[in-house]
Amino acid sequence: MKSGNPTRIAGMGACLPTKVLSNFDLEKMVDTTDEWIRTRTGIRERRIVENGSATSDLALQAGREAVRNAGLKPTDIDLVIVATITPDMSFPSTACIVQNKLGAHHAAAFDMAAACSGFPYALSVADGMIRGGAHRNILVIGAEVLSPFIDWTDRSTCILFGDGAGAAVVSESSAKARGLLATYLGSDGSAAEILKIPAGGSAMPPTQRTVAEKMHTVKMSGSELFKIAVRTMGDAVQEVCKRAGWKLEDVDCLIPHQANLRIIQAVAERLETPMEKIFLNLEKYGNMSAASTAVALYEAAKSGAVRPGSNVILVAFGGGLTWAACAIKW
Ligand SMILES: CC(C)(COP(=O)(O)OP(=O)(O)OC[C@H]1O[C@@H](n2cnc3c(N)ncnc32)[C@H](O)[C@@H]1OP(=O)(O)O)[C@@H](O)C(=O)NCCC(=O)NCCS
């Protein structure tokens, strides 16, 4: 259980590129079928940026909507956190680019790299910073433009990912029993090798060879990740429920990272949670890494799957490895 002022999600936003890349489009690009992708992953289509749009462009639109929906002005925001593994550039941070374009003139800004767990990781950090008293309104954005970092000739990875952004304003709350009740973060760097983009950093700076060998694209050991994802997300849900003082049956809506429907079904089975309580949108967007749970929470609230008073769990898993969960009384 946490101490200090409780925090709540005061407003949300999302931005999805308009260009749709369907499984049928992928059939023309690699040796795959719509049927294989649907049955192995649950994904039908994903969104892809056009015209050189960068992560900050999607993040800005999602962030602007979240601030508006929170009933705030950009100048009310005192910190911008962008969770991303596809920043516009190494530095300045994507958060600084968003801070400037949004007109959040009183905000500090930094990026957070926790891969697909980035959004719940950043929510947890924002929650702690508000409870600590240093900030009042924090804009948390999960945003990715993954499409340039995909090997579009590798059928085992290119079918999975998409671009997008989701955002939440985290603010102080006066209601003790509402808002972010508990968070839980974990990592295991010993398994870093099974999901990564090897080149582009200081360990393997860009060279003609790294480009020719496509070392700037996502490399993944899918079946190994699958098993770890089921275990860590299941454990994370149980731990965050314990911290929130909930039993699993108390959860009204479970919003998992949208990587693969079969992973989500296996987590549901492990937790003995009916699929009706689980929010899904991966069919439309695939895995958008840090944007996935952000966009899913946005859509869950918009569709009425999450209502005032709902007990909501966000849970994610990703490269690092990292995992994270948040328990939210909506
Ligand atoms: C990637 C994933 C969908 C693959 O599904 P899978 O059931 O594990 O499939 P496998 O990797 O065992 O491959 C089975 C076969 O399908 C083939 N295959 C892989 N991708 C294919 C595709 N897009 N179309 C057709 N066949 C494909 C493989 O080559 C393999 O063929 P083989 O048996 O002749 O060698 C699945 O492992 C997965 O989703 N893992 C988690 C990935 C993830 O979530 N990553 C992000 C974490 S944040």
CATH class of the largest domain: Alpha Beta
- The arrangement of helices and strands along the chain is EEHHEHEHEHEHEEEHEHEHHHEE
CATH architecture of the largest domain: 3-Layer(aba) Sandwich
| CATH fold-level label of the largest domain | Peroxisomal Thiolase, Chain A, domain 1
Give a quick summary of the entry.
With 330 residues, the protein is of the alpha/beta class. It folds into two domains: 7-176, Peroxisomal Thiolase, Chain A, domain 1 (3-Layer(aba) Sandwich); 180-329, Thiolase/Chalcone synthase (Peroxisomal Thiolase, Chain A, domain 1, 3-Layer(aba) Sandwich), CATH 3.40.47.
What does this structure look like?
The chain has 330 residues and is α/β, with parallel strands linked by helices. The protein has two domains: 7-176, Peroxisomal Thiolase, Chain A, domain 1 (3-Layer(aba) Sandwich); 180-329, Thiolase/Chalcone synthase (Peroxisomal Thiolase, Chain A, domain 1). 34% of the residues lie in helices and 23% in strands. The protein has eleven helices and 13 strands. It has helices spanning 23-27, 34-41, 55-69, 94-102, 118-131, 155-158, 208-212, 222-244, 261-271, 282-285, 290-303, and strands spanning 7-15, 20-22, 45-47, 79-83, 108-112, 137-144, 164-172, 179-187, 195-196, 219-220, 253-256, 311-318, 322-329. It has a five-stranded mixed beta sheet, with helices on both faces. The chain has a four-stranded mixed beta sheet with strand order 8-13-12-11, sandwiched between helices. The two termini are 17 Å apart. The mean pLDDT is 96. Bound molecules: coenzyme A. The site of coenzyme A has 21 residues, from α2, α6, α8 and β12.
